[in-house]
Specification:
Layout lengths: L10 E6 L2 E5 L7 H4 L2 E8 L3 E8 L2 E8 L1 E7 L6 E6 L2 E5 L4 E5 L6 E8 L11 E3 L12 H8 L3 H9 L6 E3 L18 E3 L7 E3 L3 E6 L7 H4 L2 E7 L4 E7 L5 E15 L5 E8 L3 E4 L4 E17 L6 E3 L6 H4 L2 H8 L3 H9 L7 E2 L4
Antiparallel strand pairs: 1-2, 2-3, 3-10, 4-9, 4-11, 4-12, 5-8, 5-10, 6-7, 6-9, 8-13, 14-15, 15-16, 16-21, 17-21, 17-22, 17-23, 18-19, 18-20, 18-21
C-alpha cells in the first residue's frame, strides 16, 4: 500500500476565549500512525492559560511565535517556571506535567512533536488534564478525593467542580501568575535562534541541531531536532537518515519545493510546501528542498536523539568517498565523465546557493 506523504495543515480540536489547541490527524496524514509520531499546536491569546496536564507521549515543544511562561514539573521534582519565547525548544519526557501562559498582546504559539510508541493511540497525543470538566478527579467519587487530599467533601466539590472550561481558559488581568526564574531555564530549554550554528553556508543556509550535548533532556525524550533556515532560491542537498531515523518537518516560514525519492528510485512526493505544513519523510528515503524567493525555514524532529545523515551531493557526499573506478563502473561512464562529476561541488556544503 502506498502511503500519502502530502503535507497537511493542522485542525482545531478545542478552544475558547483564551486560545485553541490544534492537531494533525493520522486519518489525514497516515505516516503519523505508520511512524508512531504525533504533532499538535497550542495557540494562546493574551491572558490565555493552558491548564495543567500530562501526556502519554514524550515530545519536543518549539515556540513558533510570541513570549510567555511555562510551568514544568518533572516526576518527583519541584515546579520549574521558565520564560519562553520564539525559537525556544523544550524537551518533555514521559510523566511531565506542564502548563502554559501568555500575558502579552502577541499570540503565543507552541508546536509539539513527539513519538507515540507507548501512547494509547498511535499517531496521536492523549492529554490527561488535572482540572476542568474532563479533569482526572472528576472521575473519582468525592469520598475517594476527600480521603486522598485529606479535605472535607464540600471543599473537594468546590475544587473539582468550579473549573467549567476545558483545556484552555482566559484569566483576568489582575490574576498574578508565578514569575519565571532565570536559573530554571538551565537544562530545560534551548533557543535555537540564538544557539551556536552547526552549519552556516554563505548565501545558502544555517542549521542548529538539538541533541544530547546542548539539551541533555532530549536523551530521555529519545528525539533529536533541528532548526533550518534556507536562503532564497538556495537548495538543501539530497540526503537521508542513515541510522534508521524518521524525520517529521514543520514549515515555520516561507515556501519552497520538496521532492522525496524512495524504493526503486520512485519519486513519492513532489509538491510545494508553505508555512504551517507538516510532512514526514520515511526511513532511508531521500529528501531535497529548494526555497522560493523569500527563503524557507523549518523545524524537524528526528526519531533518535543524535541523528546521523548521509548527503548525496557536496564534498562530504558518499560520491566523493567512492573510488573513481567504482563510479565509472556504477554509472557506466568513461573516465572523463567521472572526473568532471568528481570535480563539481568540492565544498562541504549541504546547502547550495542559487546559481549565478
Amino acid at each position: 500500500m502506498e502511503l500519502d506523504l502530502s503535507p497537511k495543515l493542522s485542525k482545531k480540536v478545542y478552544g475558547g476565549e483564551g486560545g485553541s489547541y490544534y492537531s494533525w490527524s493520522p486519518s489525514e496524514l497516515p505516516m503519523l500512525k505508520e511512524g508512531n509520531i504525533a504533532a499538535a499546536k497550542l495557540s494562546l491569546e493574551k491572558y490565555g492559560f493552558a491548564l495543567p496536564r500530562y501526556s502519554d507521549s514524550s515530545k519536543v515543544a518549539y515556540v513558533l511565535q510570541g513570549e510567555g511562561v511555562a510551568g514544568i514539573v518533572l516526576p518527583e521534582q519541584e515546579e520549574k517556571v521558565i520564560a519562553i519565547k520564539k525559537g525556544d525548544a523544550i524537551a518533555l519526557p514521559f510523566g511531565v506535567v506542564t502548563w502554559w501562559y501568555n500575558k502579552q498582546d502577541t499570540e503565543l504559539t507552541v508546536l509539539f512533536l513527539g513519538e507515540t510508541s507507548k501512547a494509547h493511540k498511535r499517531g496521536e497525543f492523549t492529554d490527561f488534564f488535572l482540572t476542568g470538566p474532563n479533569g482526572i478527579f472528576t472521575g473519582f467519587t468525592t469520598e475517594f478525593v476527600s480521603r486522598a487530599w485529606d479535605l472535607p467533601e464540600d471543599v473537594v466539590k468546590t475544587l473539582v467542580g468550579n473549573q467549567s472550561s476545558k483545556g484552555i481558559v482566559k484569566l483576568s488581568e489582575s490574576h498574578k501568575m508565578p514569575e519565571p526564574k532565570k536559573e530554571h531555564r538551565d537544562g530545560m530549554a534551548l533557543n535555537c535562534e540564538e544557539a551556536p550554528l552547526d552549519v552556516d553556508i554563505k548565501n545558502g543556509g544555517r542549521v542548529v541541531v538539538l541533541n544530547t550535548k546542548n539539551l541533555p533532556l532530549v536523551g530521555e525524550v529519545g528525539l533529536g531536532a533541528d532548526l533550518v533556515n534556507l536562503n532564497g532560491k538556495a537548495m538543501c542537498s539530497p540526503g537521508f537518515s542513515c541510522d534508521s531515523a524518521l524525520q517529521v518537518t514543520y514549515i515555520v516560514r516561507g515556501s519552497g519545493r520538496v521532492q522525496v525519492v524512495g524504493v526503486d528510485g520512485k519519486r513519492v512526493l513532489e509538491t510545494t510546501i508553505t508555512a504551517g505544513n507538516l510532512f514526514i519523510v520515511p526511513r532511508f528515503f531521500v529528501v531535497s528542498k529548494i526555497a522560493d524567493d523569500e527563503g524557507l525555514e523549518w523545524f524537524s524532529i528526528i526519531s533518535t536523539p543524535n541523528p546521523v545523515f548521509t548527503h548525496l551531493a557536496g564534498k562530504t557526499s558518499v560520491w566523493k568517498a567512492l573510488s573513481p573506478q567504482v563510479l565509472e563502473a556504477a554509472f557506466k561512464v568513461p573516465t572523463e565523465t567521472e572526473q568532471h562529476f568528481r570535480s563539481t561541488r568540492t565544498s562541504d556544503e549541504i546547502f547550495f546557493p542559487p546559481p549565478n
